[in-house]
Structures are given as structure tokens and as C-alpha cells.
Amino acid sequence: MKDNPVRAPIRMRYAMSLASGTSPSTALSAAHREADAFGARVLAEVGPPACAAGCSHCCEHLPVGVNAVEAQALASHLRQWPLERRVRVREQIAANAVRAREAAPGEHPNMACALLDDDRRCSVYEQRPFVCRRAHSFDADPCRRAAAGEAVDLPVDARIVAMYSQIATAFREASAALGGDAGSYELHQALDILLRDPQGDLSPARERSNEAMVRAAHAAVNAALRRRR
Ligand code: SF4
Q1: Pocket probe mutation, ligand 1, options 51, 64, 189, max atoms within 8 Å of Cβ
Q2: Does residue 1 form part of some domain?
Q3: How far apart are CA 37 and CA 93, in angstroms?
Q4: Does 12 reside within a domain?
Q5: Ligand 1 atom closest to the CA of 74, numbered from 1
Q6: Whose CA is nearest to atom 5 of ligand 1?
Q7: HEC sequence for 37-91
Q8: Could you list the pLDDT tens digit for every one of the 229 residues in the chain?
Q9: What is the spatial distance between Cα 215 and Cα 228, in angstroms, rounded to a whole number?
């Protein structure tokens, strides 16, 4: 399989960083920052999006996929919340996990994210996963219509969507190449598992996994690491 020319060098950078002892959570923060910096550069060029604090159309209905490091980071963040708040979010996560689990294969129930606050802001904004960080729109009205169930194209900058996806995939591939987890997991099911047991098996929450892609990335990273020794 021909390697992806954009993703390969990014993957290699994260693989080298992880191989030299950087913790997965530190590498994840660097990957989030790298993607955010790209997004900010594009937005500085084309103008600001319509997104604003309290506008939560996307969080009201879109599925959220997380990698294993994001799931662990979010679970450990939630564990530090005060008890009452923790119990409340825990119940909402469990309820959403049931709905996601019972949805037909490939479908997602039209439900608001359990991490959305009462004031419609993300309660884990600094830790939000790649898929949320890349969400943007230059007009809130199509977002509102999409949240209401209408099939509508959202006005986004394709470069931002593409680069976030490349960096997110490169990060998963680099983790997998070093023996980590390459999976992508449904947010609520993954958190439901990890909040019960921090060492819990995430496989029931698995969203999708391109095994051939991950195997090819594994081979490419390991060949490059061998060449550098
Ligand atoms: S994690 Fe935050 S940004 Fe992502 S869907 Fe949930 S509330 Fe929205």
C-alpha cells in the first residue's frame, strides 16, 4: 500500500517522540496543539467561523469518536471532578452509552453529548478530542438545520477538516506502531468502560479500525526506526 505523503512525516515525528519516552498524553497534547495551530492559521487567512461559546448544534447530535489516549485523558479528567458533578455526568454518560450501544450498526442516535454543560458549553473544552477540535462552520444556520435532522452541507474549510483527520490518524498509527492502541471508540461507551475500570477493555466501544492501514503504518515506522539506529 502506498504511504500517505502528508501523514507519513507527521506519524514519524510522533513515533520518534513516543519511542524516545514521551508519554502518550504529552504526545497527544502536542498533536492537538499542532492541529489547532494549523486550524488557526487557515482561519486567520479566511476569516473567523460562526462558532461561539454557547453555540452547540454540533455537540447536540454528532457522534464523537476518540482514540484510546483521548479516552483515558478524558476519564482521568472526569475522575477529578467534585462528587456531585461527577455522579451527574456519570449517569448521563451511562445513559448515552446504552443508546449508542443499542443503535443499529453504522448509525448514531440523535443525542447531545454528555459532556455538554447546562449552559451549552463543552465541560472538557481544553481536553476535547480531535473530532471536536476540527468542528467549525462559517454559518450557524446550516448547523442548526443539521441538528434538527435535515441533510445539509456545512460551510467548512476542507483544509482544516483534512489536516485534523491526517494528524489524528497519524497519532493513532504512531501509537499502534509502538505497541499502543490504534482503535477509534465511541465517546460515551469508552468513558462508561473506563469510569468503571481505568484498565477496562475498550473493544466493546470500538467504532472502526482500518487494520490494513495500521499494519502498513506499523511496518513503515518500524523500518524507519531501524534505519535510524
Ligand atoms: S466533547 Fe465537548 S466539544 Fe465534543 S461533542 Fe462533547 S461537549 Fe461538544
Answers
A1: 64
A2: no
A3: 30
A4: yes
A5: 1
A6: 59
A7: HHHHHHHHHHCCCCCCCCCCHHHHHCCCEEEHHHHHHHHHHHHCCCHHHHHHHHH
A8: 678 899 999 999 999 999 999 999 999 999 999 999 999 999 999 999 999 999 999 999 999 999 999 999 999 999 999 999 999 999 999 999 999 999 887 788 889 999 999 999 999 999 999 999 999 999 999 999 999 999 999 999 999 999 999 999 999 999 999 999 989 999 999 999 999 999 999 999 998 544 444 445 445 545 554 554 4
A9: 20
C-alpha cell at 207: 467504532
- Give pTM, 2 decimals: 0.89
Q: Which helix (H) or strand (E) holds 18?
A: helix 7-19
Task: Give the nearest ligand 1 atom to 113 CA.
Answer: 6
Domain boundaries, position 151: 7-228
Q: What is the dihedral of CA 95, 96, 97, 103, to 10 degrees?
A: 120
Pocket of ligand 1 (CB under 6 A): 59, 64, 113, 115-116, 122, 124, 128, 132
C-alpha cell at 184: 477509534
Nearest-angstrom CA–CA distance, 191 and 205: 9
Q: What share of the chain is helix, strand, coil (3-state, %, to 5)?
A: 60, 5, 35
Q: Per the structure, how many domains does the chain have?
A: 1
